[in-house]
Amino acid sequence: MSQAQQAGDGLEGAARGRAMAAVSLAVMLSTLDYALANVALPTIARDIHTDSSNAIWVINAYQLVNVVAVLPLAALGERWGYRRMAQTGVLVFVVASVLCAVSRTLPQLAAARGLQGLGASCILSVNAGLIRLIYPQRILGQGIARNALVIALGVAIGPTVAAGVLSVAPWPYLFYLNVPLGLLAWLLGQASLPDSPRSDRRFDARAAGLLALGLGGLIVGGDRIAHARVDALTAGLLGVGLVAMVGLVRRELGQERPLLPVDLLGIPAFAIAFAVGFIGFIASNFFIISMPFALEGLFARTPVETGLLITPWPVAIVLVAPWVGRLSDRVSAAWLSALGMAVAGVGFIALRLLPAHPDNLDIAWRIGLAGAGFGLLQPPNNRAMLLAAPRERTAGASGMISVARLLGQTVGAMLVALVLARAAAAGPRLCLTLAAATAFLSAGLSLSRPLLPGGRSR
Question: Which residues cross the membrane (predicted)?
Answer without folding.
Answer: 21-44, 56-76, 88-106, 118-135, 147-167, 173-193, 205-226, 232-249, 270-295, 307-325, 332-351, 400-421, 427-448
